[in-house]
Please model this.
Amino acid sequence: MNKRAKAWALTAVMMTFFIGPSRAAEDAALLKDMTSVIALLGLPCGQVVSVIKKGDNDHIATCKDGNHYRVFLNADGRVVAQKQ
Model:
């Protein structure tokens, strides 16, 4: 294997190790943020266990208790959570 191929292989492996944990940290922060938003809006949830991004500032949050909410910014720029 030539030096260039080895370098690319090493780069790919290193990216896997460094990008994976940062995504996990971002996902954990997003779950925590969604849990806080839903709680501040006074909706039953407990804890958000998964989030699906639908678009910019538009997410579907699934709660531990089984509730699903669409969390988004409305036309006035306010955060809204609609039960799905």
User: Anything to note?
Assistant: The beta strands are 48-55, 58-63, 68-73, 79-83. The chain has a mean pLDDT of 80. The radius of gyration is 18 Å. The helical segments are 3-40.
